[in-house]
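Suppose a classmate hands you a notebook page containing two proteins, each written out with its sequence and a corresponding row of structure tokens. How would you begin to make sense of it? This section walks through that situation. The first entry is reproduced here exactly as it would appear on such a page.
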Amino acid sequence: MFETAAAAGGTGGIWGAILPFVFMFVIFYFLLIRPQQKKQKQRKMMLNTLSKGDKVVTIGGLHGTIAEITDDIVVLRVNDVTKLTFDRASISHATGEKAPVLTK
């Protein structure tokens, strides 16, 4: 009779020990993991939608206009003469403006 009561109490003890860890994981998921995944998804979408003529800022703080763009390389026009080549991943954000198209 005492053996069955001890066995039933032992399984309740396991759930009592595991339950706080489950709650901590759920809290970490909603406070840390999920927002980070959303930010990564937004950044990836922003990098994929870049096009020629977009004004952007690099991670280093350089402002420029996209002159040429490929799958992994972006050429930025900083002023009328200077063009700099960057990795596409080095774009921090787009300013949301389109530069006027200059024809020569």
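The notebook's second entry, a different protein, reads as follows.
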Amino acid sequence: MNILIIEDDAAIRQELKLLLENALYQVTVLTEFHHVVEDILQMEPDLILLDVNLPQQSGFEICKSVRKTSDVPIIFLTSRTDSMDELSGMLQGGDDYITKPFQPPLLLAHIAAVLKRAKKADVTEKMTCKGVELDVVRGCVKCQEQQVDLSKNELKILHYLFLHQGEIVPRIELVEYLWDQQVFIDDNALSVNITRLRAKLAEIGVCDFIETKRGMGYRI
């Protein structure tokens, strides 16, 4: 995750940079504030920490301009404690509002929460390929008027294949995606899940949807 810091106080900017890098975020900082909106849109960060009081234009104005073309999460950082300022920030499209001086653990918690909400919002609810519809939220797959529910692993496999339509997805890539951070997984476990998934697809009349590319992986 890349976080962009837009703060004109050099000491606070450095403090934020160290804090976030120690929390294993990638960090970019702005030190010039003449073309902030253009810089944001060009950099495409995952989240912005935005000071309200900036030299050229306020953080509120910047947020309002960014919101015309981008939904990037924005957290305001400011020494202003007036509740009307907080309301103004939210009305301009801000995702959160933190007052200075901030407690580092609290700031990190707010950042994690905003990123989590943004990630959920980015999940495509329904995906379609060759007349087959995957409903990610409901955990089922549909074709014409029929549907069947999927297990967690079946859903993850199909979702990953939908994300890479037309591409051959290597077996090892699917194994790592399904069982991330587990020390050892029997390679046969993936084959078992693929077989069950194909059987469920057959229940709704979908056959030969998942191709096996021998020695390579799978493709839809």
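A careful reader of the second entry would note: The chain has two domains: 2-122, 126-219.
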